[in-house]
Amino acid sequence: MSAENLSKENFTVGLVQMTSSDDIAQNIRCAEKLVRKAAAKGADFVLTPEMTTLLDFDSKLLMQKIETEDNDPSWRHFAALAQELEIWLLIGSIAIKEGNKAANRSFLFSPKGKKVVSYDKIHMFDVDLPGENKFRESKSYIAGDKAVVADLPWGKVGLTICYDVRFPYLYRMLSQAGATMLTVPAAFTKTTGEAHWHALLKARAIENGAYVFAPAQVGLHINGRKTYGHSLIIDPWGEILVDGRTEEGIIIAQIDMKKSQEARNRIASLTHDKNVVISS
């Protein structure tokens, strides 16, 4: 990548909002259609939600459907799509077989179709929600243990997934490692989304003076799960630039990377962290 490309400050981001099912081929077709739509509208960087290719919580069926990364054809399909459209493409996550469980893995592809980095979701969604089924992500998925930052032409991006958003330390680490963009592909439940989605994402943007790109699953899925939608593009001052609301489709925004440094100059909290001892 040339020094000229690395100095760019403005670009167009596009977020895909979709309702994934338990049919991998159908999900790939839907995601591709929406990625193409975003690229046609001028998006330089397109992001899809968590569980883009498969939203299925039956452990046995999940393991029957997915492949190891070496054998999985879906990420290669998206790599070729990024190359064809000449865009940066983040696939929010693909379930990848790792032994007797799966990894919830994001993939970032360059406009040349290169897999630049991948990221495994660190925090597992193991919760009991009032009036809803229990969620035990750790029954089917293994947790990642590495934070990931990658270089884009417009700055550094920090990768996270869904439930990670509830752990501010991760975003602090990514931002202090140079990230001025934070990605949060998600499949938030309707209940938790209505309560916390907007607040959490705005907080991560404000705390770190970073753009937040959060493509989301939406609607009623074939397994009965309801996801919240409301894909969000948030600027470093915490302003929501676009909200995807509750329909499948795409959202687009123009990004000015100077705003990240401006926000960090106005409130330089990234440089003010202290190591403290709790006394009792």
Account of the protein in words:
The protein has 280 residues and is an alpha/beta fold. The protein has a single domain, classed as Carbon-nitrogen hydrolase (Nitrilase/N-carbamoyl-D-aminoacid amidohydrolase), CATH 3.60.110.10. Helix content is 28%, strand content 30%. It contains seven helices and 17 strands. The chain has helices spanning 3-6, 24-40, 59-65, 74-85, 168-176, 190-208, 258-266, and strands at residues 10-17, 45-47, 88-98, 101-109, 115-120, 126-128, 134-136, 141-142, 148-152, 155-159, 179-183, 211-214, 218-220, 226-228, 232-234, 240-243, 249-256. The strands form four sheets. Strands 1, 2, 3, 4, 5, 8 and 17 form a seven-stranded mixed β-sheet that branches. α2 (24-40) packs parallel to α4 (74-85). The radius of gyration is 18 Å and the shape is globular.
Helices and strands in order, then pairings?
Blueprint: H1 3-6, E1 10-17, H2 24-40, E2 45-47, H3 59-65, H4 74-85, E3 88-98, E4 101-109, E5 115-120, E6 126-128, E7 134-136, E8 141-142, E9 148-152, E10 155-159, H5 168-176, E11 179-183, H6 190-208, E12 211-214, E13 218-220, E14 226-228, E15 232-234, E16 240-243, E17 249-256, H7 258-266
Parallel strand pairs: 1-2, 2-3, 4-8, 10-11, 11-12
Antiparallel strand pairs: 1-17, 3-4, 4-5, 6-7, 9-10, 12-15, 13-14, 15-16
Helix pairs in contact: 2-4
